[in-house]
User: What shape does this take?
Amino acid sequence: MPLIAILWCVGCLFATACVGIVISRTQAATRVVYGLCFAASMTAFGFALVYLIGGATFQPTVVLPFGLPWLGAHFRIDALSAFFLTVVDLGAAAASFFALGYGRHEKTPERVLPFYAAFLAAMNLVVLADDAFTFLVSWEFMSLTSWALVVSHHRVRENIYAGYVYLVMASFGTLSLLLAFGLLAGPDGGYAFAEIRAAHPSAALTAVVLILTLVGAGSKAGLVPLHVWLPLAHPAAPSHVSALMSGVMTKVAVYGFVRVVFDLLGPPAWWWSMVVLALAGITCVMGVLYALMQHDLKRLLAYHTVENIGIIFIGLGLALAFKAHGMAWAAALALTAGLLHVFNHSIFKSLLFFGAGAVLTATGERDMEHLGGLIHRMPQTAFVFLIGCVAISALPPLNGFVSEWLTFQAILLSPQLPSWGLKFLVPAVGALLALSAALAAACFVKAFGVTFLGRARTPAVDQALETDQFSLAAMFCFAALCLIAGILPGLFIDAIAPVVKGLVGARMPVQTGVEWLSIVPIAESRSSYNGLLVFLFITLSGSLAAFAIHRLASDKLRRGPAWDCGYPNANPITQYTANSFAQPIRRVFGTIVFRAREHGDMPPPGDTRPARLIVELRDLIWDTFYAPIAAGVTYAADRLNHLQFLTIRQYLSLVFGALVMLLLVLAIWP
Amino acid sequence: MLLVLLLAPLLTGFVRKVKARLLRRQGPPLIQPYRDLIRLMRKEVVLADNASWLFRVIPYLIFAATWVAAALIPTFGIGLLFSWSADLIAIIALLGGARFFLALAGLDVGTAFGGIGSSREVMIASLAEPAMLMIVFTLALIARSTQLSNMAEFMISPEVGLRVSLGLGLIALVMVAIAENARIPVDNPATHLELTMVHEAMVLEYSGRHLALIDLASSLKLLLYVSLIACLFAPWGLVSADAGPAALTLSAVIYLGKLAIGGFLLALFETAIAKMRVFRVPEFLGAALMLGLLATLLLFVSRSL
Assistant: This one.
């Protein structure tokens, strides 16, 4: 029943896309398309949520007569897909609602509307697919529609470049997944997930499939070093699409990884988790360090997605490690941490991208160096953006802290793992996670402080107006969700429980029955956390202090010029900028990670040029991995170019040679 | 909760007094911090023209977060009423939250000094927090709990023994505590010399009751760290909450003694050492982080359960 209903919603989304093509040039198009998308996503979200909370009972596979004629398109809903459906559709509903207001500023709606609806439908289909063929087609469809959205503002040069890099990386990722599923399906072509699950592939084969899946899903999710397209493509799209790509599409990639590795591949080997954990730890720290070096607000957020994907994969990697060593209860804790972070990240990252979109429409600027002081002009946007910043910085009592806390608890269980490699790796990953949490807080002090606080750096900012009601409503809903998920995490953990039970065979203890609504991962003597009480304590003691001081001491207030040690300078250019704010951290970490070099350009006396401080950063990942590949491709293309200028005799001998080669291969093949 | 609030300025006053005596000065009386606070609270607030609503809310947030964190540390009784509501990781995150908002306050008015303070503070925090978490890992792995009351209980019990990891953890914790409380050699709480200040630069624009709250929060933080070190590494004298009044009084006296020793050692250390350049601080804290990581690694490797 829920499956049919959600498939109908997907059908509605496709119909909306068609409607979008027809009416895209009319006035009402934006409203109609986003309104329909909102309604369809909300309905799908409702069905998925009810199914998930209702215990995720077994549902039969539905086969629709699409795709390969002898196979059909299989769809099935289980706890895992229902959980990811709620994430996808909640994000989609909020983005559509946000776009009801935001989309009106779009200059070329015909380049956005049809693809938007199709993109939503594709993400739903990936999660619902129950055979390899449907999965891959939906996956590629999702990539292509999102690519169309990335290049929707095609007159901007950077966007075209971003779209190009994205297309190459997405094709590469799909190719890896294609090979992975091909190996899984075997020579007989058992493409349905049920057949794959029933097969027992050899250890060598699963190893190859694991690596291919990690590459395929990891490139979509943004694992370092496959993340290069992400900070280019996510900011290039319109902001509600950026929110979807960062908050939701990366989660679909996580779904692909979880589905293959936890569900289809069978019991894990001990070394799988080491690969995943090592990559995840590096991803965490590199993502946040890259983010710290940015001064483009949306690109900063995109790099933070890389960091958070790292955190999610740490949870997944730990779950794999525990599962491989038969510690199902610990695996349940780690997997819950990872999945809860999937949900949390989709909420606050969408919220932050919405905020960035609101700033973009109000000022026309994405560059933080041109912003500042927006808290005076856009107080409500500033408030919700601040909530998002606190949540993503993993500070209590909001939701980001809960999932990181659970991840830390899972790390604390890992000394019981018998394997020596993990004994060394896990504490190092823990240190990297702690480091990235602290750096994320630093980064969001920068993002919020430079954008919203201080004084306006350009006149455009002084004219900024508060954003529209639809956008604000979407942002306030997500800000409220950040708080609710932070103070009542037990509800969410229990909702995830059926997913975890299905994948690792155990679940965390029931949380909703714990007194005072605390969360207790293992036992109360070990650790517990109560977001509700922490929130109440802070609110109470803060208001108590305010009340007591205002009542008993003084509540007088006088405005005056800033003090600034007696030398206030009225020019906003004297403020700290995003670059100068990050300078100490750049000096501490960047000299190693980015080969950061600073040198001053001081003109000689008599020259009227201004003196300049030049900062050089090098992207070592690009230089070591991608630049050689690009150079190799160019070189090969140059060589092969000669083939186009041969004589007819040479061409004929080439064909002859190829034929002889093929026959030889056939003859030798056993 | 009230106890820590009342004691905190006394500890600050005590440290200042000892420092002055070590320098052969008379020094302010012990209760001077209380007087300062009361005077500040009675004064009107002078707010910069372009300060936002956030700037006015932040002192209360910082105070509340620090107070809640300080109230969750066992002072002389363990088994506090709400100790299960937040474990040590949450306490550290609460302090991290206070710092997050303090750094925002530094940026709010849009002055260069505020910016320099904030940017240096987050640089220090980006190393101090992971170091602290590594120490927590060490202790939690030994005590098999991140719940402070349980950790302290375990530390009293004889099964702790002497461990290398604990020693490394203690050194790292002291280093982190010095950095977190903006003491010499990381930062100087008494300076207003522009280029060296970190904490003071961020609160430069605060006055009146706002400044009083922030000062009180810093005193609370100092008390918090001294209590934390005392309850984890010198847990003698801790009694459970349902012990008789005599035992409670005795342990309260012991607690005061521990605070006095901690304060004295801090003053002695601060007098004996010079302040570092800002870019030496990462090396100092990096050492703390490595010590913490080493302590954790040792535990992971030595545990053969």
About this structure: Chain B has one domain: 2-302.
